[in-house]
């Protein structure tokens, strides 16, 4: 039976480490805990959480036009875990899977500040209290032209933002990833090109859109570190780099925030970054994608769809905008 996570009656700052520990346990299915006592026990006790603990969530349903579900074949979990972009752990697609276990994800908190009536810092357990976790099967398309279909587990970002009561001045959201050099070899490397911490942004209406998900799991289990544990964003109609991983900070603002990739190369990476086969990346076409698993001999090449196939749900957000200019 599913449990509903009730918001605690005490401020998160007063919650002891023991109650934090117990509440994180609530996220994990009792059945799963029984089956995996040793692994679950050590991960929950604050050692390195490498993902894979069973979650309690509402399974995806093939429901109407919301776009929360696709019947396209799901990408095998191994491909999603092994072929990653998480530059904090290295530039190679295999580096995150090799190095991300170094990141400590428990305890974890997110601070929310800026144009909100109730700024504050909440630990992960408190963030999850009050939400029912749900599964969403989304297409995910990277700017480098590979794509996958992933069953994410999470809750709408809008539900989290509403708890902090955005003010009338709230027009944009900025997200920041954990920046912990000692646990992130990619940030110490001389080949690192990003101005850390990794930063991303959304317009307020994009952030509040029901498709925009805060994910804490995939394939029914907690996220592996390399996929952004313990909590990441998933914005399915935008190129993958908007889906920022391992978030520790959210700032609500009046002004459009600077993002890592825009700062690095504004000609190649715009603020909006909506998946758009009609607008090429300056160095390659965006008309096709390689759906993982894909090999040199079997590239699994398919045409890319506008807004990654979510046109019906999100085109209205951009009415009247020149999407060649606002790429
Ligand atoms: N978030 C952080 N903090 N650092 C990153 O390097 N890479 C982005 C995005 N989120 C990235 C990040 C890019 S380029 C992509 S395509 C997706 O994560 C990849 O997500 P996945 O590895 O889980 O498939």
Can you put this structure into words, describing what you see?
The structure is a single chain. With 327 residues, this protein is an alpha+beta fold. It has eleven helices and twelve strands. Strands 3, 4, 7, 8, 9, 11 and 12 form a seven-stranded mixed beta sheet that branches. It is globular and about 50 Å long. The N terminus is likely disordered. Ligand MTE binds next to loops. The site of ligand MTE has 17 residues, from loops.
Notable features of this structure?
327 residues, alpha+beta, seven-stranded mixed sheet, five-stranded mixed sheet, 20% strand, globular, disordered N terminus
Radius of gyration: 19 Å
Percent helix range: 10-25%
β-sheet strand percentage? 15-25%
Which structural category do the helix and sheet elements fall into?
alpha+beta
Question: Spans with pLDDT under 50 lasting ≥5 residues?
Answer: 1-22, 29-47
DSSP, total strands: 12
**Kindly state the mean pLDDT as a whole number?**
88
Give the CA-based shape: globular
